[in-house]
């Protein structure tokens, strides 16, 4: 037993775990394709011109006059409402920006959003961490998390000593949710839509059913919706919209972030959470938690506020290019991977990832056992060591027993993805 925090020591965050750490070592001598995380700007995706112009202008007002007309207008609005961008804002975030976010939610859903229920945060991760710290007590700490899941949730829960109850996403039904298999005696439930790592997008009826289930069983629903812009050939419907449309009393906290979507400004750390039907006691605890953090960084606040600002032609052209490119990349990589022997893969509906299933041969099973590794860990390690491709093994996300997967982003260039496809084929010739 460690003399330090044993709970934190046990926590496992696979996205930046064993494979990523080994990739950093290899990167001193060869190029690595980092497919382990959704980090758009490290590939061939460019930031939005408007976003960077506005950030530059508010940090250095002397250059505002040199910006494009639309960016100038936005900068003047922000500098009118926020006198010094080096100062603390309210713990919830600046009121002007929270109003912008609530207007964005209204336009998205068609239902009112109260700015007082909006909290601006340093990305969605900060918000999720704060909420998980706020909800539970020692005698009531059961949380229901999807399997597979984004490993932030299990890592945080392990570090805090919470009891995790998993619900299995159905791979043979494009990672859908079986309501009948959900556990009723938990305090809260995590819903990730669009899915990470799976890339599924739930239907409005699916989400409504989940909201009804949580309302009936007095479960707080945590809706992780950070990939809501990344939807292909289907429609994203928020949990908030479903609750509002059917006048449900579901206790709901939803999350969004500028790291994902087509903004892709991961390092700027901007996000928000919205509280809906949350009781006064929990709200006061969340307020206290926010006050202890003083405030979210102002650059991230501004960027999340820009979701609701008027966009010019340059932005719309850049957005269309980003959307079409990501959609084409998702289809391309899916078509490449699904034709590789000993791999199966569900088509991506959204997010930034594919989650292929490895169908291991006896040879691969023996190689993994001899290396004292899980099959999918060994597979990903060989892909990294031999070809410089960093993915994340499925065991880091939770997966059905006796199944093996890996998560891979489709953000790399087409040239890189062709190399990835050829490398996986070559790897299979060697280890299958």
Describe this structure in words.
With about 425 residues, this protein is an alpha/beta fold. The chain has two domains: about 5-45 and about 315-430, Aspartate Aminotransferase, domain 1; about 50-310, Type I PLP-dependent aspartate aminotransferase-like (Major domain) (Aspartate Aminotransferase, domain 2), CATH 3.40.640. It has helices spanning about 5-10, 20-25, 50-60, 70-80, 95-110, 125-135, 150-160, 205-215, 240-245, 280-290, 300-305, 315-340, 360-370, 375-385, 415-430; strands at about 35, 120, 140-145, 165-170, 190, 220-225, 250-255, 270-275, 345, 355, 355-360, 390, 390-395, 405-410. The chain has a seven-stranded mixed sheet with strand order 2-8-7-6-5-3-4, with helices on both faces. Helix 2 runs parallel beside helix 14, helix 6 packs parallel to helix 7 and helix 14 (about 375-385) packs across helix 15. It is globular, with a radius of gyration of 22 Å.
Question: Between the first and last Cα atoms, what is the distance in angstroms?
Answer: 39 Å
Structural class: alpha/beta
Low-pLDDT runs? none
Q: Please report the number of helical segments.
A: 15
What's the overall average pLDDT, rounded? 90
Total individual domains:
2
Number of strands: 14
Largest sheet: 7 strands, mixed
Report strand %: 5-15%
Shape assignment: globular
Q: Return the CATH topology of the largest domain.
A: Aspartate Aminotransferase, domain 2
CATH architectural name of the largest domain: 3-Layer(aba) Sandwich
Order of helices and strands: HHEHHHEHEHEEHEHEEHHHEEEHHEEEH
């Amino acid at each position: 037993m460690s003399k330090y925090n044993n709970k934190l020591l046990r926590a496992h965050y696979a996205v930046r775990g064993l494979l990523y750490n080994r990739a950093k070592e290899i990167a001193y001598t060869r190029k690595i394709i980092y497919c382990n995380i959704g980090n758009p700007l490290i590939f061939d995706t460019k930031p939005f011109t408007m976003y960077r112009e506005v950030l530059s202008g508010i940090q250095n007002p002397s250059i505002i006059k040199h910006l494009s007309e639309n960016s100038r207008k936005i900068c003047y609005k922000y500098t009118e409402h926020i006198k010094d961008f080096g100062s603390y804002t309210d713990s919830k975030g600046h009121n002007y920006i929270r109003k912008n976010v609530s207007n964005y939610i209204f336009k998205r859903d068609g239902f009112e959003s109260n700015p007082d229920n909006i909290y601006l945060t340093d990305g969605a991760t900060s918000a999720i961490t704060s909420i998980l710290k706020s909800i539970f007590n020692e005698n009531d700490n059961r949380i229901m998390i999807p399997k597979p899941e984004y490993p932030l949730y299990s890592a945080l829960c392990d570090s805090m000593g919470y009891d995790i109850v998993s619900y299995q996403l159905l791979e043979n039904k494009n990672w859908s949710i079986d309501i009948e298999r959900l556990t009723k005696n938990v305090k809260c439930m995590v819903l990730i839509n669009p899915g990470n790592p799976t890339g599924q997008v739930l239907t409005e009826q699916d989400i409504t059913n989940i909201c009804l289930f949580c309302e009936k069983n007095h479960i707080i629903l945590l809706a992780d919706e950070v990939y809501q812009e990344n939807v292909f050939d289907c429609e994203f419907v928020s949990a908030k919209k479903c609750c509002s449309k059917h006048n449900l009393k579901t206790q709901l906290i939803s999350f969004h972030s500028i790291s994902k979507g087509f903004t892709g400004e991961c390092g700027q750390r901007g996000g928000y959470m919205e509280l809906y039907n949350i009781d006064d006691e929990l709200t006061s605890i969340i307020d206290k938690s926010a006050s202890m953090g003083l405030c979210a960084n102002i650059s991230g606040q501004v960027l999340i506020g820009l979701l609701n600002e008027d966009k010019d032609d340059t932005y719309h052209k850049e957005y269309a290019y980003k959307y079409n490119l990501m959609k084409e990349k998702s289809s391309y990589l899916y078509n490449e991977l699904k034709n590789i022997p000993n791999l199966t893969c569900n088509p991506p509906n959204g997010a930034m990832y594919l989650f292929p299933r490895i169908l291991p041969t006896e040879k691969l099973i023996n190689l993994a056992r001899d290396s004292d590794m899980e099959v999918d860990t060994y597979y990903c390690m060989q892909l990294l060591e031999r070809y410089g491709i960093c993915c994340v093994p499925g065991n880091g996300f939770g997966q059905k027993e006796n199944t093996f997967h890996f998560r891979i982003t489709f953000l790399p260039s087409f040239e890189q993805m062709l190399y990835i496809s050829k490398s996986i084929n070559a790897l299979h010739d060697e280890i299958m």
